[in-house]
């Protein structure tokens, strides 16, 4: 799908990978006797797209929620833009939140609000914005995610899964954040809608110089988008590296996830220079899926 923004950023270089913007050190998170994270370290630099993968229940959503300040760590430090989040006063924490946009795993939109009001909601929370300005900002965000204005008055129930995700992204970027967090953004989308979503994130990444942290089970999305992949296993980040390197780490989850049929098929779609760095087991034939 061609959009004005996509055309405008075509050929633009990728954002430069710069200073560390997320620094998680020796993080422990417990729910009662359930230890979700233990001695977990995690870094993200400005301009990166980091995919977070791991088994169900490995703590991916919990990690993102702690980084966003929606959940408190049991111990350890989280620094955002160089500042320790545990020492921020209320106002600074609020400012920090506005620098980060989020697309949640479940309930991407408020079902009782139409598209316009969903996207306007974070702006309205900021305070009084003149109606005309609000309208312009919302319409601009909808255009940026490739949604024609005519959908603005629709209710979420009247949208396709792919459109719901687009509106969710429009809302997440309403306050022009520097970082975007996505939790299973392509779950439930058909392959075409997933591909379009990958295009959209790639376009926004270039256009806005965004830093993206994306939780995903979807190997194709991960391979197509991520500059690095962080693998959550054994309560910590086992490895955080370009996917061709992460795939070579000797661990049962990595063998199963990256070197199974689907994993190999996704990895073999890497460009030749990166494919050359894959472990030999990833290069074994991965026949295309047969649909009977
Ligand atoms: N609010 C909570 N109270 C108690 N336990 C929780 C809470 N939130 C998460 N957990 C537990 O923490 C662990 C990690 O959950 P989390 O939702 O972060 O996993 P996930 O990796 O995102 O899984 P999925 O792939 O299924 O989304 C699970 O054992 C879960 O039961
Ligand atoms: Mg989750």
TrEMBL record:
Keyword Oxidoreductase on entry: no
Instruction: Show which residues constitute the signal peptide.
Output: none
Q: Which PROSITE patterns match?
A: ABC_TRANSPORTER_2
InterPro entries of this UniProt entry? AAA+_ATPase (IPR003593), ABC_transporter-like_ATP-bd (IPR003439), P-loop_NTPase (IPR027417)
Q: Which residues form a coiled coil?
A: none
Q: List the Gene3D superfamilies.
A: P-loop containing nucleotide triphosphate hydrolases
Q: Name one GO molecular function term.
A: ATP binding
Domain (ABC transporter): give its ranges: 22-259
Q: What is the protein name given in its UniProt record?
A: ATP-binding cassette domain-containing protein
């Amino acid at each position: 799908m061609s959009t004005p923004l996509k055309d405008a950023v075509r050929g633009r270089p990728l954002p430069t990978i710069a200073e560390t913007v997320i620094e998680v050190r020796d993080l422990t998170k417990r729910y009662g006797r359930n230890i979700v994270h233990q001695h977990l370290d995690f870094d993200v630099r400005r301009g990166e797209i980091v995919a977070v993968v791991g088994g169900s229940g490995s703590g991916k959503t919990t990690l993102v929620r702690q980084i966003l300040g929606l959940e408190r760590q049991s111990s350890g430090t989280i620094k955002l833009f160089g500042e320790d989040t545990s020492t921020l006063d209320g106002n600074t924490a609020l400012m920090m939140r506005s620098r980060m946009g989020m697309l949640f795993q479940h309930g991407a939109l408020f079902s009782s609000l139409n598209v316009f009001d969903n996207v306007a909601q974070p702006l309205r929370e900021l305070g009084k914005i003149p109606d005309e300005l609000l309208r312009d900002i919302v319409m601009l965000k909808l255009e940026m995610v490739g949604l024609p204005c005519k959908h603005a008055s629709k209710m979420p129930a009247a949208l396709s899964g792919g459109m719901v995700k687009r509106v969710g992204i429009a809302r997440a970027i309403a306050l022009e954040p520097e970082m975007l967090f996505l939790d299973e953004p392509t779950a439930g989308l058909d392959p075409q809608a997933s591909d379009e979503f990958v295009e959209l994130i790639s376009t926004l990444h270039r256009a806005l110089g965004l830093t993206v942290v994306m939780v995903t089970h979807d190997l194709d999305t991960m391979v197509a988008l991520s500059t690095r992949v962080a693998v959550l296993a054994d309560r910590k980040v086992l490895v955080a590296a370009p996917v061709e390197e992460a795939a070579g780490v000797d661990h049962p989850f990595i063998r199963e996830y990256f070197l199974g049929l689907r994993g190999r098929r996704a990895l073999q779609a890497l460009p030749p220079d990166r494919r050359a760095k894959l472990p030999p087991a990833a290069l074994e034939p991965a026949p295309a899926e047969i649909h009977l």
